[in-house]
Design a protein that fits this description.
single chain; about 270 residues; Rossmann fold; 10 helices
Length: about 270
C-alpha cells in the first residue's frame, strides 16, 4: 500500500503534541480569513467545487452538507447560500468565530461548531461530506477520512482535498530548512519564512505555508485505496490523472498541483448518478 509521509518536527509520533501545534497555528492565524462583504463575493467557492464533479446548476439545493475542517467558513457559507443545510466543524475556535461572523454578514444559515473530527458524533447522515485542505492537518488523515465516509449517506458524494506527497516536495524541503533554525516555534517559523521565502500573499497565507509544523502528504493511489476500503466509487478529480504515479511526478516537475482534489460516491443499490 502507498503510505503517507507525515512531517512533525521533533515530536515524532506524539499525537497530542502534534495536534496542539496545529491548533496553536490556526488560533493565531485563522485560515484563510478572506475579506468577504457579500454573498455574491462568495459564489466562486461553491462554483469551483461544483465544476469538479457536476454540471447541475441546482446541485446544492436542499442538500445536507458536512464541511470537515471548515476553517473560516467561506466555502460552507457559499454552499449554504445555495439553499443547502450546512454544518461546518473546525477545532480552531478562532476559525469558527470568523466563520460565524461571516454567516451573520451574508445570512447564509450555515451552522458552525468548534469540534475535533475525531470527537464528532451524529445520528443523521449527510448528502455531501467535504474535507478540503483539512485531513492532512489531523493526527491521522486515513482515520479522519473513515469518519467522513461513515457520516455520508448511501449514494452521497464525498470531496477530499489533500497535499500531494510528490508535488509538495519543494515546500517540504523549505520547511525542513526552516525547522533546522526554528524548531517548533511557530512564530519564529513564520517570521523566518516571511523573510527568506516570502510571497505576495498576506501573513495568514505565510503562516499556513511556513509556520505549519505537523502535516501529512498523500498520493492519488493512497486515496483511491481509502475509497475502496470505505465503499466509495471514484467519480472525478482535480487535476485529472491517467496514471497516478507518473502524472504526480509530472506535477512535481511542472511545479503545480501540490494540492489535489478527489471526489467519490458512496455505493448503494440502484443509486442514481449525480
Amino acid at each position: 500500500m502507498d503510505n503517507p509521509i507525515i512531517i512533525t518536527m521533533q515530536y515524532g509520533k506524539n499525537e497530542k503534541a502534534a495536534e496542539g501545534l496545529v491548533r496553536e497555528l490556526y488560533e493565531k492565524w485563522p485560515y484563510p480569513s478572506r475579506e468577504i462583504g457579500s454573498g455574491e463575493m462568495l459564489s466562486k467557492y461553491h462554483k469551483w467545487v461544483s465544476k469538479i464533479f457536476t454540471t447541475e446548476k441546482n446541485f446544492w439545493k436542499e442538500k445536507k452538507v458536512f464541511d470537515v475542517g471548515c476553517g473560516t467558513g467561506e466555502l460552507a457559507n457559499s454552499i449554504a447560500l445555495q439553499d443547502a443545510k450546512v454544518l461546518g466543524i473546525d477545532f480552531s475556535g478562532a476559525s469558527i468565530g470568523r466563520a460565524k461572523k461571516l454567516e451573520k454578514t451574508v445570512k447564509s444559515g450555515a451552522k458552525f461548531e468548534e469540534k475535533n473530527v475525531f470527537e464528532f458524533k451524529s445520528k443523521k447522515k449527510f448528502d455531501v461530506v467535504i474535507a478540503l485542505g483539512s485531513l492532512h492537518h489531523t493526527i491521522d488523515a486515513k482515520r479522519a477520512f473513515k469518519i467522513c465516509a461513515e457520516n455520508l449517506k448511501d449514494g452521497g458524494i464525498i470531496i477530499v482535498g489533500l497535499y500531494n506527497k510528490y508535488s509538495r516536495l519543494r515546500l517540504r524541503m523549505k520547511r525542513t530548512f526552516i525547522g533546522f533554525f526554528c524548531g517548533n516555534n511557530i512564530g519564529k517559523r513564520v517570521e523566518f519564512g516571511k523573510k527568506y521565502f516570502g510571497g505576495p500573499e498576506n501573513e495568514t497565507w505565510i503562516a499556513d505555508k511556513y509556520g505549519q509544523v505537523h502535516e501529512s502528504y498523500h498520493s492519488v493511489g493512497e486515496v483511491l485505496e481509502w475509497f475502496r476500503e470505505n465503499g466509495i466509487e471514484f467519480v472525478n478529480s482535480k487535476p485529472k490523472f491517467k496514471k497516478p504515479l507518473i502524472d504526480e511526478i509530472k506535477w512535481l516537475f511542472k511545479k503545480e498541483n501540490a494540492f489535489f482534489v478527489m471526489v467519490g460516491k458512496k455505493n448503494e443499490k440502484n443509486s442514481k448518478s449525480f
